């Protein structure tokens, strides 16, 4: 009887030990999965951030190039006017001023007389 009792006790102890071991392995597995998910999320966020930054950089570059082109065109026009000579340049400038005034009036909501 005593031997049987001792054996049962030993068996239960072993079972509990196995159970604890199982639990620990289960928890470790769970923790590993969580770490993996966390890593993945971090990677995704980093990727998204990089994507957004690139998008912004491209957008800024576009606007800068646009401004540069506009300046260049303006310079070219001025050079052309200088080359044509004083009289023709004067006509060109007057024409440009007229166009500018027309744009301003349009912005204000007034219509141009149209006979100029």
Automatic annotation (TrEMBL):
Chain segments carrying region Disordered: 1-116
Record's compositionally biased regions (Basic and acidic residues): 12-28, 50-66, 89-98, 106-116
Coiled-coil features, chain-numbered ranges: none
Basic residues bias spans: 1-11, 29-49, 67-88
Protein name: Uncharacterized protein
């Amino acid at each position: 009887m005593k031997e049987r009792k001792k054996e049962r006790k030993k068996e239960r102890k072993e079972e509990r030990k196995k159970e604890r071991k199982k639990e620990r392995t289960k928890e470790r597995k769970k923790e590993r999965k969580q770490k993996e998910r966390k890593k993945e999320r971090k990677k995704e966020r980093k990727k998204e951030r990089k994507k957004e930054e690139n998008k912004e950089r491209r957008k800024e570059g576009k606007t800068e190039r646009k401004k540069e082109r506009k300046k260049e065109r303006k310079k070219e026009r001025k050079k052309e006017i200088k080359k044509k000579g004083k009289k023709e340049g004067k006509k060109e400038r007057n024409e440009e001023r007229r166009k500018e005034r027309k744009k301003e009036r349009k912005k204000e909501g007034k219509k141009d007389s149209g006979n100029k």
